[in-house]
Structures are given as structure tokens and as C-alpha cells.
Design goal:
- It is a single chain.
- This protein folds into two domains: 166 residues, Response regulator (Rossmann fold), CATH 3.40.50.2300; 69 residues, Winged helix-like DNA-binding domain superfamily/Winged helix DNA-binding domain (Arc Repressor Mutant, subunit A, Orthogonal Bundle).
- Helix 4 links the parallel strand 3 and strand 4.
- Strands 2-1-3-4-5 form a five-stranded parallel sheet, with helices on both faces.
- 51% of the residues lie in helices and 11% in strands.
- The relative contact order is 0.12.
- Helix 9 crosses helix 10.
- The protein is α/β, with parallel strands linked by helices.
- It is built from eleven helices and five strands, in the order H-E-H-E-H-E-H-E-H-E-H-H-H-H-H-H.
Length: 257
């Protein structure tokens, strides 16, 4: 009986978080019907304030599908912690990364982590809607950002989405960030346009820009998931982008959504 009640409670909480997601972003994300992970989502919290680290830890430990595998007080500590977790086969699925920290800030840490572990899913944390800093964090490889006054439901929903490798922006300054990114010289210099992509690549890029995961793209187009991954590598190369975040931004710039 207890196991059944616990399972029902978990399903209800996950359903609630998916509903909350609709209010977190101006863009639609098509989540899978069931979580793809059969184990808890591992989270690493990086913030220089002990109160913030412990506060987020306690909130996440109340969720049945999360496991906080560590905390770090700055970017340098985060790098060494991640390396140790990989050694212990406990690599984090999602990192909550404060922007402003001593020694190594969140943007420098995000850039260093993405260079060493390209598949890392990072959400940057900030106290204010600082568009310039958020812009830089996204360019460094973060999947999205959260304000520190976020609700526990929004926090949980965002982590679940990030664990799927999907991009997430909160709505208030999101249009400013996209405008800033799309007008940035780092994304607009003479790079190939959609005419350099095959019809299949355009289909995949369009679905990616709508928030679809590799699995969902594969199901939509009747392809193997490995084929989707290979096509995305080709798309990234042709568009001159590093990751899904920049590819989605490029797709919006090209009017593919």
C-alpha cells in the first residue's frame, strides 16, 4: 500500500510540474509522456551563499525524483566536484549555477564545464533580470536561467526539462534576451543560411526549435534516434553553432518556428 501511494504521489507531482511549465516560457515544449530516466535526476548546486545552496538542496530533496549529489561555493570548486563525481559514476544531470561568484564566476565555469563535458545541462541562477549577463551565460552554453526567487514548483519543472536537454527561458525578459542574442555579432556574421541545409535537416531543426527532444524528433520523422543525433551534428556544423541552445536561436533567426 505504501509503495502504491508513493508512486501515485510522484506521478501527481510530475504532472503538476508539467502544467507549471506552460507558465515558465513563451515557447512551447513538448514533454514526453513518461520520464525517460529510471533513476533520480542528479543535481549539483553551485552558489557562493551557503543559505542559497542549502535552501535549494532542501527544496529538491523534498522531490521524489531528484538527488542532490553535491554543492560547490564557486566555479573552481564546481569543476573539481564534477570531476570527482564522474570518477564515482555519479555525474550530475543538471547543474544550478550562480552567475556572480568569487574566484571563478558562473559564466567562466559554464564555459569551462561545457568544454570539458559538452553534454552537461546547466541552468544559470541570478538575482535580477540582467539581460546582458544572461545573454553571456547562454552563449557560454547554459540551457536557460532562473531567478533566485523562483517557486519550488518552477524550480522542479525547470530541472526536469533541463535533464531532457531542452532549452528553457522564463517569460519576462525572454524576448529581450532573444533580441539581444539574435542581434549579437557572435551569432550573425556571414554564416550559412537554411539554403545550405537539406530538407530533412530543416525538418529536424524546426522540431528542435519547437522544443522537441531527440527521441521526439525521431518518432515524429520515423527515424532512428542515432540518425537524429548524426543529423544534428551536421546541422550544428553547417550553421556554425556549438549546441542545441544556439541552434534553436539560429532557427528563430531564420524564421523556422
Amino acid at each position: 500500500m505504501r509503495k502504491g501511494k508513493k508512486r501515485q504521489k510522484k506521478q501527481a507531482e510530475i504532472k503538476r510540474s508539467r502544467t507549471t511549465v506552460e507558465h515558465l516560457t513563451n515557447f512551447s515544449y513538448h514533454l514526453m509522456e513518461e520520464p525517460t530516466m529510471t533513476r533520480p535526476i542528479r543535481v549539483l548546486i553551485v552558489d557562493d551563499q551557503t543559505l542559497v545552496r542549502e535552501g535549494f538542496r532542501k527544496l529538491l530533496e523534498m522531490e521524489p525524483d531528484f538527488e542532490v549529489v553535491g554543492t560547490a561555493r564557486d566555479g573552481e570548486t564546481a569543476l573539481s566536484t564534477i570531476a570527482q563525481l564522474y570518477t564515482e559514476q555519479q555525474s550530475p544531470d543538471v547543474l544550478l549555477m550562480d552567475i556572480r561568484m568569487p574566484r571563478m564566476d558562473g559564466i567562466a565555469a559554464t564555459r569551462a564545464i561545457k568544454e570539458r563535458w559538452p553534454t552537461a545541462s546547466i541552468i544559470i541562477l541570478t538575482t535580477f533580470d540582467d539581460v546582458e549577463l544572461i545573454h553571456t551565460g547562454l552563449q557560454a552554453g547554459a540551457l536557460g536561467y532562473l531567478l533566485k526567487d523562483v517557486t519550488s514548483e518552477q524550480l522542479a519543472a525547470t530541472i526536469r526539462i533541463a535533464a531532457q536537454g531542452q532549452v528553457l527561458l522564463q517569460p519576462d525578459p525572454a524576448h529581450n534576451i532573444f533580441s539581444s542574442l539574435l542581434s549579437s555579432h557572435s551569432l550573425t556574421p556571414t554564416r550559412p543560411g537554411p539554403e545550405h541545409l537539406t530538407d530533412r535537416e530543416l525538418e529536424i531543426l524546426t522540431l528542435l526549435a519547437r522544443g522537441s527532444s531527440n527521441r521526439q524528433i525521431a518518432e515524429e520523422l520515423f527515424l532512428a534516434e542515432g540518425t537524429v543525433k548524426n543529423q544534428l551534428s551536421s546541422i550544428f556544423s553547417k550553421l556554425g553553432v556549438r549546441d542545441r541552445t544556439q541552434a534553436e536561436l539560429k532557427a528563430h533567426e531564420l524564421g523556422l518556428t
